[in-house]
Specification:
The protein is of the alpha/beta class. The chain contains 8 helices and 16 strands.
């Protein structure tokens, strides 16, 4: 079992509040992603879980035990950092087994565990190479193997793919997901990339300014954001946010702004008149004229066309 409870967790650096009294329960075997812009407190939260930062107040509990005073090595955690931090003078095999050597694991067992984990992350063919001979993606796989080989109950990953190119990020993202499914252990992943969060997470924790904005399933957060920050942060391209006002015509609410007029869906029948912001996902905009009683036509000049292959983005 490896359930993690963050209870009123807070971290201050002088007058700066990096993490503001957050509460999160991470279930055993769950893949939870903390996501948000730079400086939102997600990495600080991860470092408090790992034991590299002491909370100003609040508790970190692992399986019900408060671990605030435990050293990182005593928490049963494994961490993969943004920097690969491989020993340049050791081979891949020696880098992977280093943690086991420090724990005085017998040589034969070390060799067996290194072989097993190398096969899991698909670096068996690299075991005799030096770090300088590896590509960025290969180095990240070795860093992951070095953590896996110690068999921790909980895996912490701090933006491990941010330094890689887009194609490698997609490949290793799939590898992280596959490894989680094989091991069925608790994974906590930190990223600023909403696409990574959507594709990897069982649940997403969205942070801003040290606070949690929303916790939920990926599609729940995408379809039902709690505020304009979450709505704008998720989606590529991001949601269109149009300022305007709600007026009533024939007892039915309608949205009005400069150049756009649209009757609102029945789900908004309880809305009050006044200033609002209308959020529209790009995939919900059609270039076809409104028909069959639908409203929402707007005549707007196209400013930019971006052909991306299967999609073409129009800016207007």
């Amino acid at each position: 079992m490896a359930q993690i409870d963050l209870v009123n967790l807070r971290k201050e650096y002088g007058a700066v509040v990096a993490v503001n009294d957050i509460n999160v329960v991470i279930e055993d075997g769950e893949f939870v992603v903390f996501v948000g812009p730079s400086g939102c407190g997600k990495t600080t939260t991860l470092r408090m879980i790992a034991g590299f930062e002491d909370p100003t107040s609040g508790e970190v509990r692992i399986d019900g035990q408060v671990v605030n005073d435990l050293e990182p090595r005593d928490r049963g955690l494994g961490m993969v950092f943004q920097s690969h931090a491989l020993f340049p003078h050791k081979t891949v095999a020696q880098n992977i087994e280093f943690g086991l050597r420090m724990k005085n694991v017998p040589l034969a067992e070390r060799a067996e565990r290194v072989r097993d984990v190398a096969a899991l992350v698909r670096v068996t063919h690299l075991l005799g190479k030096m770090p300088a001979q590896l590509s960025g993606g290969e180095s990240q796989r070795v860093a992951l193997a070095r953590t896996l080989v110690t068999n921790p109950a909980i895996f912490l990953l701090d933006e491990p793919l941010s330094s890689l190119d887009a194609k490698l990020r997609r490949e290793l993202r799939a590898e992280c997901d596959r490894i989680h499914q094989v091991l069925k252990k608790t994974f906590i992943y930190v990223t600023h990339d909403q696409e990574e969060a959507m594709t990897l997470a069982d649940r997403i924790v969205v942070m801003r300014g040290g606070n949690i904005e929303q916790i939920g399933l990926p599609m729940e957060i995408y379809a039902n954001p709690v505020n304009s920050f979450v709505a704008d942060f998720f989606g590529s391209p991001s949601m269109n946010l149009v300022p305007g006002e709600v007026v009533f015509e024939g007892g039915r609410p309608c949205f009005r702004s400069r150049g756009l007029s649209a009757a609102l869906h029945d789900r908004f029948k309880g809305i009050s008149a006044g200033s609002v912001t209308l959020g529209i996902r790009p995939e919900n905009v059609s270039s076809e004229p409104a028909a069959n009683g639908r409203s929402g036509d707007a005549v707007l000049p196209v400013r930019l066309v971006e052909p991306l292959g299967k999609d073409t983005l129009l800016y207007f």
